[in-house]
Design brief:
The protein is of the alpha/beta class and 326 residues long. It folds into two domains: 163 residues, D-Maltodextrin-Binding Protein, domain 2; 99 residues, D-Maltodextrin-Binding Protein, domain 2. It is 42% helix and 19% strand. It is built from eleven helices and ten strands. Strands 1, 2, 3, 4, 5, 6, 7, 8, 9 and 10 form a ten-stranded mixed sheet that branches. The chain is globular and about 65 Å long. The termini are far apart.
Length: 326
């Protein structure tokens, strides 16, 4: 009997040891068991923050645990991504990235592999930028902006949410296509850039539509164009850049959710499912459409493909324009 008990105890200990070596995917059956941190890689008040807080609000309800937004801006979103990828790959630290994420590998010496060191979860939204100016700015259209820029080479100042951001490169790509030079004034986020544009400290801004549109509606900014391939419902009379004499110009801002490399598959699938449910809510498309964006959604593999493709695209553009980090 004693020998049998010893064998049983030894068997239980061996089983426990084997289980300890298995991936933590089984633990995902109770996920989440505590609050989740959602790192937003830009400052409060910008488009990323608006999307992130909307997502966090509904995921809190869906997951039954608080989803807490933490803004961590800097270096075009790199600092926030570094913090998110340094966390355990257990689904309790997520990072909301923008399309600027796919620009950064061409500008910075990153501490991580932008393709292989992440777990893609889902693309959240997509939409054009909005080219906005102060109401006192003399140009009232893209054509007039081009004429003004050529008559004042190197004198116009354009804001961005950070060096190497999609907002920066969207403006730089336009100026290159139009054949005139502007001065880049990078900020540490979209909110600060908009504040200085409203205050007249800079001349124009290729802005995230979600953050610029309320100021347009309030008469504090004037829109010249949208950067996507079609007009937006919120501003039906505002043409696209392509319509304004630059066919083929198309710059889209998107947001998506990632985690550290190696997240359990069932945790990823749970998060992907819940985010897709939020995007499918009746009010979500209408909310995003008002801000000039649309829902995206899809699978982790589809989001991975977008990230990989755009990293290659922006690398070619950064090389062509000679953009350097500041």
């Amino acid at each position: 009997m004693k020998r049998r008990r010893q064998l049983t105890q030894a068997g239980l200990m061996a089983a426990a040891w084997v289980l300890s070596l298995l991936p933590a995917t089984g633990l995902a059956q109770t996920y989440p068991a505590r609050p989740i941190k959602l790192i937003v890689t830009f400052v409060p008040g910008g488009g990323a923050d608006i999307i992130g807080r909307y997502l966090a609000q509904h995921l809190t309800t869906a997951l039954g645990q608080p989803v807490i937004v933490e803004n961590k801006p800097g270096a075009g979103g790199v600092l926030g991504v570094e913090a998110g990828l340094a966390a355990p790959a257990d689904g309790y630290t997520l990072t909301l990235i923008s399309s600027s994420y796919t620009v950064n590998p061409s500008l910075y010496k990153l501490k991580f592999d932008a393709v292989n060191d992440i777990t893609p979860i889902v693309q959240v939204s997509q939409g054009p930028l909005l080219v906005v100016v102060h109401p006192a700015f003399p140009a009232k259209s893209i054509q007039e902006l081009v004429s003004l820029g050529k008559s004042r080479p190197g004198q116009l100042n354009y804001a961005s949410s950070g060096q190497g951001s999609a907002l920066h490169l969207g403006a730089a790509l336009f100026a290159d296509a139009a054949g005139f030079k502007m001065n880049h004034v990078p900020y540490k986020g979209g909110g600060a850039a908009l504040n200085d544009l409203v205050g007249g400290q800079v001349d124009l801004y290729f802005a995230a539509t979600a953050s610029a549109l309320p100021l347009v509606k309030a008469g504090k900014l004037r829109p010249l164009a949208v950067t996507g391939i079609r007009r937006i419902a919120a501003l039906p009379d505002t043409p696209t850049v392509a319509e304004s004499g630059f066919p083929g110009y198309d710059v889209t801002l998107w947001y998506g959710l990632i985690g550290p490399k190696g997240m359990p598959a069932d945790v990823v699938n749970r998060l992907n499912t819940e985010v897709n449910k939020v995007l499918a809510r009746k009010e979500t498309p209408a909310k995003l459409e008002v801000d000039g964006a649309s829902t995206a959604g899809g699978t982790p593999a589809q989001f991975q493909a977008i990230v990989t493709r755009e990293i290659d695209l922006w690398r070619r553009i950064v090389t062509k324009l000679g953009v350097k980090p500041e």
